[in-house]
Design a protein that fits this description.
homodimer; alpha/beta; Rossmann fold; 6-phosphogluconate dehydrogenase C-terminal fold; 2 domains; six-stranded parallel sheet; three-stranded mixed sheet; 11 helices; 9 strands; 50% helix; 12% strand; disordered C terminus
Chain lengths: 294, 294
């Protein structure tokens, strides 16, 4: 196999979990890590996510077969730009970012040419409401879907880079993931609906309840499981979501507006049979008993 | 102890769970059940939630020390009215309804007088997204809060009814619940925020996603834990929520409108520092690190 050295740039929750997961599935090569925060990469080393700590990300990337970008989206845009002239066709860059359109646009021209490094955009649909290497887990990706969004022109990449991409996909499957392919635009719209919207809703609900009841620390235990679940993502730090909001703005705004309208519709129909229809639609989503599905 | 015969009117999820929980905590008296749906009460009998099945709810109630009302709110309003002239000061009616204002208003005049049965309104903050005796569990209330909303005039109730109320509260504590008291109006506003609003949000989100993606049955697994949690309550049937929407309409509408405005605020600030403030407020709700709380 061609992947002997993997570099993880950004050893937070996802980057460190990827390292731990690779190791636990018997990846025998070198995994080296770098993070702008020294304590994050030291934690990753302590947890066995990386076996080596690098002091310079470019030097590290140049010495690696596969470079895994695992930082915030805007940071990864910078890394992509900075690494493009440094890497060659015997190398593959992949990432774990939550927004793919901006990354694919940045990579266009600088990657996937016959003389360039390959770029395979990826997105594991897994995470936690708290980031950082200390929360990483070798099983974070078990049972999750790992989306890939091959950019236009990916077929032009070198044979070596193409082989690395195939091998990386195989590793993702070994981590316990189901691999699905889509295109960057569809990915970003899909994730706005099923990931970014739920996050914003949980943040909005949590912030609203904090404003209403801040003196009452007992609210979460009184509300029970439902309230805990609906506000769990309210713990997510802004730092994990800022770049997503900045780079997938239109799709998120569109989904938010649609939900606002849906809530208004429910509010106006609390006493009418329309409410029954809303519950029936919701039941179909969860229970899959829509006649249109069969 | 004075409670020797308990009647459960409505042996669905909550009623049957109450019976199973009482039995598992060694309640040694008789628990008899009645339900308008024969199969529900037969399931409750099979699961050990009730030891006897009654054919007439009024006859059953008249022969009991404590009558536990565990049906939809509008049904319980009817039962309260129908039972008032049939019961006496040696008896206590309690309930498990999610809305307390309407029930307390109905009970006023017909209960808690020196010659009348007592009425102790209660609300266990526990449930599941699917109802019915088949989903009942002896541990449903373990760790939950059980709210009581003593109505005005409760102090006038007979000594016997007062003693039964004390004993019922002790049983609730034995079920593993934390007992809290509030008044009916505050209860209904609180539950609109922490229970009814989260339900409507989950229903709206699920219904919206069903409309957007109904052809794509794979959405739930792709979205992962966050999407599953945020839409779990979308499985809740209309039948469990209709009466709540009908009897706590104003408070639910008020909380829905506030959330719509909060979502619009986020939507308009996806690229501004205001988004950081929203995440910070949400973090405070979940993590309790508000300076105002300390």
């Amino acid at each position: 196999m061609a992947i002997e050295r993997i570099a993880i740039l950004g050893t937070g929750l996802i980057g460190a979990s990827a390292g731990m997961a690779l190791r636990s599935r018997s990846f025998a090569g070198v995994i080296a890590g770098w993070d702008p925060k020294r304590n994050e990469v030291e934690t990753a080393l302590r947890m066995g996510a990386v076996g080596e700590i690098a002091t310079d990300p470019v030097t590290l990337a140049k010495a690696s077969d596969v470079v895994v970008l695992a930082g915030p989206v805007l940071t990864m845009l910078e890394w992509l730009e900075r690494l493009a002239p440094e890497l060659g066709p015997h190398q593959l860059v992949t990432d774990v970012g939550s927004v793919k359109g901006a990354l694919c646009a940045q990579a266009a021209g600088g990657y996937n040419g016959p003389e360039q490094a390959g770029f395979l955009p990826g997105h594991p649909m897994a995470g936690k409401e708290l980031g950082g290497a200390a929360n990483a887990s070798a099983n974070l990706f078990e049972g999750a879907v790992w989306l890939f969004t091959e950019p236009e022109g990916a077929a032009e990449r070198s044979a070596q880079a193409a082989a690395l991409a195939v091998e990386w996909r195989a590793w993702v499957a070994k981590l316990g993931c189901r691999v699905l392919d889509t295109d960057p635009v569809r990915h970003d719209v899909l994730c706005a609906w099923i990931s970014h919207l739920p996050q914003m809703v949980s943040t909005a609900l949590s912030a609203l309840l904090e404003d209403q009841f801040e003196a009452d620390a007992d609210l979460l235990p009184i509300g029970g499981r439902a309230l805990k679940e609906m506000t769990r993502l309210g713990s997510s730090p802004y730092s994990m979501w800022r770049d997503i909001a900045l780079t997938n703005t239109d799709a998120i705004a569109h989904s938010l507006l649609a939900l606002e309208q849906r809530l208004a519709h429910i509010r106006e129909n609390l006493k009418t049979p329309e409410l029954r229809e809303e519950f029936a639609r919701a039941n179909e989503f969860r229970l899959g008993n829509s006649p249109k599905k069969s």
